[in-house]
TrEMBL record:
Transmembrane segments: 12-34, 40-59, 71-90, 96-118, 125-147, 153-170, 182-201
Keywords recorded for this protein, A-Z: Membrane, Transmembrane, Transmembrane helix
Domain of life: Bacteria
UniProt keyword Transmembrane, yes or no: yes
Coiled coil: none
Listed name of the protein: Membrane protein
Organism: Bifidobacterium moukalabense DSM 27321
Amino acid sequence: MRKLFGGLKMGWLAVILFAVAAGAYTGIVGSIPAAEGTSFKDIAISFEWWVIFAVVIASNCTKSWESALKIFVFFLISQPLCFIIEVVFGLSVDQALYYCSIWGPVTLLTLPGGFIAYYINRQNVFGSVILGLGNSIQAFLGIAYIIQMLGNPPYHLLSAIVCFASILIMTFQIQKDNRNRVISLLVPVVVVVAALVFIRMTGRVIV
């Protein structure tokens, strides 16, 4: 596990093959009707696995610009491939446009996002805060999955477990100092609490 977050040879060929595998798997799973509403299809409509994939790439880069370019290329290959496979299997026009409206902007944002993600490798407060922000995404998604699961158990249970397990695994594998690990774990707590307070005070839901 430790090798996954900092011990892989993440060359360009590895990134491309990784992207093709992720895109093909996601497109195929997303096209299986029996997977509808389950954790197995969540990879096609949510972000938790893609956050993990980005962290794996960033953890195995030696420069910030390298992280930015490799994560961007990873999404630039995997997302269109996923889209093409789903269209072949009968994705409707409305579904295709909805897919593009979400993953198109996300793919573009991976360029600056990948640049920032590189700094999770820093064994200091800054690096632990950056990792904590990534953990915050996982925390929000995990909470959302738990809410969905309670309404229709046990659907999305696996996805909820993946979200919260990834927070612990990434934190303890990437950050080596216990003080920095505490920061990376506290940041999502603070962000989630702040979001709940905002919702309670304004009555607005954060999308």
